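I keep forgetting this: the sequence line spells out the residues, with the fold written below as integer tokens. I include a record here:
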Amino acid sequence: MMAKVNSNKRAALDFLSFINASPTPFHAVKSVKERLSNAGFKEIRERESWASTCQPGGKYYLTRNGSTIVAFAIGKKWKPGNPISMVGTHTDSPVLRLKPVSKKQGVGFVQIGVETYGGGLWHTWFDRDLGIAGRVMVRTTDGSIIQRLVHIDRPILRIPTLAIHLDRQETFSFNKETQLFPIAGLIAAELNRTSGGSKGRDVGDANGEETGNTADPTPLKAMAERHHPYLMELIASELGVTIDDVLDFEMILFDTQKACLGGLLEEFIFSPRLDNLNMSFCATMGLIKSLEGESALENESSIRLIALFDHEEIGSLTAQGADSNALPAIIRRLSVLPSSSFEDARSEESYSTIGGEEGLSTAYEQTLSTSFLLSADMAHSVNPNYAFKYESDHQPEMNKGPVIKVNANARYATNSPGIVLLQEVARKADQDGEGCVPLQLFVVRNDSSCGGTIGPMLSAALGARTLDLGVLWSGDYVFEGTAETLELLRSKGKMDSLVYGVGKKIVFVTNNSTKSRVEYKKKFEGLGIPTTLEEIFSSSYSAAIYISRILDLPQNKRKVFVLGESGIEQELRSENITVLGGTDPAYLRQLDASEYDLIATGDPTILDPEVGVVLVGLDFHINYLKLSLAYHYIRRGAIFLATNIDSTLPKSGTLFPGARSISAPLIMMLGTDPIAVGKPSQAMMDAIEGKFKFDRSRACMVGDRVNTDIRFGQEGKLGGTLAVLTGVSTKDDVLNGPIRPAAFVDKLSDLLELKN
């Protein structure tokens, strides 16, 4: 059994979920924010006053630029001028970033212009399956501008090496400006896609310059001129907006291969971005774990703080870098926060208790003089193939403890008092019954260059848990032990050896849109599985919620044309949405010859002008008429939605066409994919989270289909994913496929074996 769920690997698997959800500093900060919010931290902003907000016993966080985050907890015995315990890390890694004008091509290939960020080993980026992720500035329907995050987690780019027969150089060398551009497609395919070869959009010359003219002058070239149109369509589609709504972006390339456990005994973590997301994760979880007890801050007189900075890889000298005013400004504001002993912590008179204005005027300096900063950055274990590169008496070994970095030229901030203090902390762990923490010392060789951290610059400047289940049955057969396993998960105190805590909330998530939640409840009960309507979340219900509560449809465009069964119709009507198509007998017929002209001209007798959405699900009565109407509704501006992207439907021990097979003709005709609202769409995850208010980091997705169920859990940044081999995906899919769960079992009831 792969990565069987147990306490020894729980932390590693949690970290894997964190790093796979964090391809950019923006996503890393988003992941940290979610964990902090779930732990009771409150978001504050730099531009606001903290006097009435930040109170002893409180937990807070703030961000800068969306890529730097600082979080802190204030002890209940805090007084102005008291010390602050700090851990500093960084969120960025060396990457390739899209250029402001990335549209390039060469000898028949569509290419993307990129620039290097940081000091990367750029030869390792060749021949990898690359996706893109980052921050997008989007104009909303009301004209305001907001930032949205994009994570296109599939291979769309590759930097190809030259064939070995054409270049047998022993040392791989290349030009970063001319030979590091990824290929994204073929020009011929792009021309055909943009409709009709030379009649389509001009893809530009070999240097990426647009050869056409724009009608309206703008300060900068339009985004669709600066970047390839299909790339823009892909990004816009991910966000559910139009290309014109995308104003700018900061896009980063990343390897789509997931971080995973490795080694013969799974003793390693194989992962990108370990420097320094590992320390960012440890700092975040360390702060959260230290506050789990109700009395954690009761006798605390200091502030516990973590700071995760961006731009360490390029020197930190930016507004969101460690060499900015960010941390000093925050500490200055925290140092004068009043204590809880004041009758009115918000009144200026209360400050007289600590010596008036004179006492407060030196609180910042007092705080700095007694505070301690731990600069946490990854250290390099000795490499067995290059052991000679390490100083012989300072070779860090795996599993021999944290590494204290020392450098005589102050590339690291360590000094003797700091070493002694850290040793005392390590000894205290033994006194607390946790065992003494071993430490290691590291210096570089005199004939080797030394790296750097944020330590010196900061030193200089400062002096409800959920198990989310998917498919549980096959047809009308419920697998042995399923009901008992669900009952065990719901019960209190019986699963501590499997997941933390007691009492699990279960949500049944299904992509099958043919039934309503009421019908699914009846099916559950018929299979001997008691459940409530609130525990069922189907793709048809998700679609209804998305259309009624998220899409801002005009009043005259609120009807929905359906390719699907009664389950969709029932859920849409429960949200007071008017339905056309679907199971209506008027649409279960052939297209009459006289109706071609009516459709072509948009005659309202056949094309209702108030249809604003076309929703496609599994339709057992699909026909040419419904496809034709759906196509022309979308051509006339209707939003193209799909309940899910399952291409097949498991039934009677084999597979049949699924919902994506129904939408496939429309996809081929339109040249675009629908917005999916079922697994693995995060629109569905957001809707579930909004309804149940659960902690994603302590939830597990269980399902039998890796490309929807497991991907749903991974992209939703759930704490775990568990595959069951009772449905679509095979053991080979689970072990060797591109999407791999954290664990798998033959059947759900295998969890019963872990109950004791």
In short: The two ends are 18 Å apart (CA to CA). The domain at 467-511+682-754 is CATH 3.40.50.1000 (Rossmann fold). The chain is about 30% helix and 20% strand. The longest strand covers residues 145-157.
